[in-house]
Write a structure and sequence with these properties.
Layout lengths: L1 H23 L4 H23 L13 H19 L1 H8 L3 H7 L7 H8 L7 H26 L4 H24 L25 H32 L1
Length: 236
């Protein structure tokens, strides 16, 4: 039952994020549909590899594809931002309230706690990832509404939330690797560790959702920097 719930809410979160983000991007409908198609293909690839067990750590596969699938979206986004002013402008044009609001779906981190309670996850990983995501998601919605209503982001509040959200994801990834049996980076030997994250439906979290949310945080940080620069210029 828990896997069924995880599959439903996980795919729902992926779908909402993909549709909302691509719709908010400037550009032609064809460009947005093309990006949505790439995103959908990526989700399909991660799902297929997870179903086939190709994302799991093992002595014969110490560097599984789960690490590659986590890193590729971040690297692609980074290259586009550095090399394409058009792509950089498009990402910065995504409304900040939407970027923050999409993170409200991270309250679904309660699944980490449920998996820990059922013995499917162990060690510090599920509690750090679960509680961190719940806090980030719970604050995201009222913060997004505040930014949308005011028209000017409360820079300090958004910055604190953004830093917390980034650190939550980084710590979760680190603890997940340190708890993964068979990983060359395993430092925590506590039962099953983070094994469930290597298989469907939960493999979509490290391969799709975590990279996506990291990208939203980086965009918010860039928007905040632009806001600070504009404020400083207006006060000069």
């Amino acid at each position: 039952m828990l896997d069924l719930i995880g599959a439903i809410v996980g795919m729902a979160a992926v779908g909402v994020n993909l549709v909302a983000f691509t719709q908010a991007l400037p550009g032609t409908l064809a460009h947005r549909l093309g990006l949505a198609a790439i995103g959908g293909a990526w989700v399909g690839l991660a799902s297929g590899l997870g179903a086939a067990g190709k994302l799991a750590f093992s002595p014969d596969n110490p560097l599984p594809l789960i690490g590659v699938l986590f890193a590729v979206p971040l690297l692609v986004a980074g290259v586009l931002v550095l090399r394409s002013p058009r792509a950089r402008a498009a990402l910065l044009a995504v409304p900040m309230p939407l970027l923050i609001g999409l993170n409200s779906l991270r309250v679904l981190g309660v699944l980490f706690l449920l998996l820990a309670a059922s013995g499917r996850l162990s060690g510090p990983f599920p509690y750090s990832a679960g509680l961190g995501d719940i806090i980030t998601g719970a604050v995201a919605l009222p913060l997004a509404l505040s930014v949308a209503r005011s028209g000017r982001p409360p820079v300090a509040a958004v910055s604190r939330w953004n830093i917390f959200g980034i650190l939550d994801l980084i710590v979760a990834v680190g603890l997940g690797l340190a708890s993964a049996s068979g990983s060359p980076l395993q430092l925590i030997h506590a039962g099953v560790g983070s094994a469930a994250m290597q298989y469907l439906p939960y493999c979509l979290i490290p391969t799709v959702l975590v990279p996506f949310y990291l990208i939203t945080h980086v965009i918010v940080a860039a928007q905040l920097a632009a806001t600070r620069a504009a404020l400083a210029l207006s006060q000069a």
